[in-house]
Specification:
By secondary structure, the chain is mainly alpha-helical. The chain is 84% helix and 0% strand. It has ten helices and no strands. Helix 5 crosses helix 6. It is elongated.
């Protein structure tokens, strides 16, 4: 228990009673509100990298249809601005730009049957997110409990003095706010990359 407390480091009084309940009652459900609203950031903050990265990828993919739909809705305005721009730069680039934008719109219009179902897609994705949020809030503490036990057992297997082990536990556990910022940045980068891929495909 002392090693677990050293590893958790922050909010020990919150986690230890829940960990004891998981161990004694074999229960897995325990509401965690930060995990309810921002599961990927919660797991990143607790240094659970693999799960945090998976969630960032999933959430980015779930946002892609909405981003494409927004781009499709803005294309007419972009075409109008390109046609009526009076900047000198457009004297040579304007025809090519208008043609490229018009080609994108034609391709998206060709898939109009798919995009007509965008409200349905939004509802489906909303259901997925709400169900996952419930799952994350209910199982977040248990997943963290399993992560802590695994890490603590590995560290205890090493031949370390108590002082060194305690310091190592605290360094490997605890929280890291910088990881939250890293995950936020990664999510935006993934969205930009995926949208860039969509635009390139439309330009081909």
């Amino acid at each position: 228990m002392k090693d677990v407390a050293n590893f958790v480091s922050r909010n020990v009084l919150y986690y230890l009673p829940r960990f004891q309940r998981f161990h004694q009652w074999k229960s897995r459900i325990s509401v965690n509100f930060p995990c309810l609203f921002f599961p990927q950031l919660y797991f990143a903050n607790r240094k659970m990298w693999p799960l945090a990265l998976i969630l960032v990828g999933v959430f980015s993919l779930l946002q892609l249809p909405a981003m494409v739909e927004t781009f499709r809705a803005e294309l007419p305005n972009m075409i109008y601005m390109a046609k009526h721009s009076e900047e000198s730069l457009w004297t040579t680039l304007q025809p090519q730009m208008v043609e490229m934008l018009q080609g994108m719109q034609d391709k998206l219009d060709a898939t109009n049957r798919f995009w007509e179902f965008s409200p349905m897609w939004a509802a489906i994705l909303g259901q997925l997110l709400s169900r996952y949020s419930w799952l994350g809030s209910g199982l977040g503490n248990w997943l963290y409990y399993r992560f802590v036990l695994k890490k603590v057992h590995r560290i205890r297997e090493q031949d370390l003095s108590e002082a060194v082990r305690n310091a190592y536990l605290r360094s490997q556990g605890g929280t890291n706010g910088w990881l939250i910022l890293g995950m936020i940045a990664l999510e935006y980068v993934l969205l930009l990359l995926m949208m860039s891929v969509v635009i390139v495909v439309l330009m081909l």
